Amino acid sequence: MSFFKQRALLGWTDLHAAAAAGDTAKVQLAVQKNTQDLDRVSRDGQTPMHLAAANGFEAVVRELLARQAKTTVQDKAGRTPLHLAAAAGHAGCVRELLGRNNRDSREVKDYLLALKDKEGNDALMAAVVAGKEGAVKELVQALGEHGVRLCMDKCGHGPLQVAVQRHHVHLVPPLIAAAGGPDKERDPATGATALHTAARLGLQAAIDVLLRHGASTTTLDNAGRTASETALAAGQHAAYRALREAFQPSTAPPPSGVGGYDHRLVQTPAAATTAAAQSSAAPAPPSGLGRLQIPTELPPAVLYPKAPEGAGVYF
Questions:
Q1: What's domain 1-149's superfamily in CATH?
Q2: Which residues are bridge partners to 248 per DSSP?
Q3: Looking at residues 133-142, what average pLDDT do you find?
Q4: Is the pLDDT of residue 72 over 90?
């Protein structure tokens, strides 16, 4: 598209065109020509910073930041330049927008991180939805653990839940660490953990990653189901078998002086056999305990009174 068509149809200035092309020299000339174009918006509501960030032109973003271009302008879809850089996976532009070259205060940067587009997503959620690992890591570092826990989509799902829902297994490890553990995020409607969600969808790879990071197989959702029961209810039989193998009750006797069942878990049958062998020094149970006792003599017959003649069944 020629510049004249861009100017007529999109409402671009010379600076918009230079930023979209990634031409730093032309950006400098356009700014010198008219500094008011720094934050001028197109018909889509986008500034030159939007176009540079969306296309991954780090040098142009750096130049515009040096000229103190605004970073918190939202286009007609509610997206900031940070949204566009995150969704496109341009980790370098994300770093520039949140780094030292952006001379905005900490409060303004926090505001930028918290801004949501019209779909209800902030920049981190935009990166998670798009599956962009580099951008996710940059934003997690900028937000910190507390900030990540406040990040939710319009349905109240956290980044870890959304990553599993979108089948972005590669995002699960960094988001587990950011969330403070694999079981911290719950679906507000169902109470499901990320493991419940992976089980319902039959995502074996996500289940494996979550289990390696210590996800609980005994946590219940609002319906009182474990992740394995959720998998079975959804017809995900492979996921159900994998979760049942990870959840095997111990066959060893309970500790001395403790009543009821021993709810400690073992991971493999071999581990259960080892535990049973180690407990062989425990006192043996009384002879015959646990076996069916067959009496050697029949009990005496019970004599009932004879019914009067002509009486019914109950007399």
A1: Ankyrin repeat-containing domain (1.25.40.20)
A2: 266
A3: 97
A4: yes
Question: With the CA atoms of 50, 52, 58 and 60 taken in that order, what torsion angle do they form, in degrees rounded to the nearest 10?
Answer: -110
According to DSSP, the residues that pair with 148 across neighbouring strands are none
DSSP, collapsed to helix, strand or coil, labels residue 122 as coil
Which ranges in the chain are annotated with CATH 1.25.40.20?
Answer: 1-149, 155-250
Q: What's the rounded Cα separation, in Å, for the pair 126 and 136?
A: 9
Q: In which band, very low, low, confident or very high, does the pLDDT at 257 lie, cut at 50, 70 and 90?
A: very low
Element (H, E) at 28: helix 24-33
Token pair listed for 75: 């286009």
* Side chain identity at residue 227, one-letter code: A
Burial of 311 (0-12, 13-18, 19+ CB in 10 A): exposed
Residue with tokens 């959620």: 125
CATH of 155-250, one of 1.25.40.20, 1.10.1660.10, 3.10.490.10, 3.40.50.150: 1.25.40.20
Nearest to 3 by CA among 59, 15, 84, 174: 15
Name the amino acid, one letter, at 100. Answer: R
φ, ψ (nearest 5 deg) of residue 45: 85, 20
What is the per-residue pLDDT for 305?
A: 54
pLDDT of 3: 58
CA dist., res. 100 & res. 114, Å (int): 19
**How confident is the model over 271-286, as pLDDT tens digits?**
444 544 554 544 555 5
CA 299, CA 180: separation in Å to the nearest integer? 66
Q: Which residue has the tokens 């174009």?
A: 37
The average confidence (pLDDT) of the chain is: 85
Q: pLDDT of 287-301, one tens digit each?
A: 554 444 545 555 565
Chain center to CA of 134: 16
- DSSP 8-class letter at 217: S
Give the C-alpha separation, 175 to 82, whole Å: 19
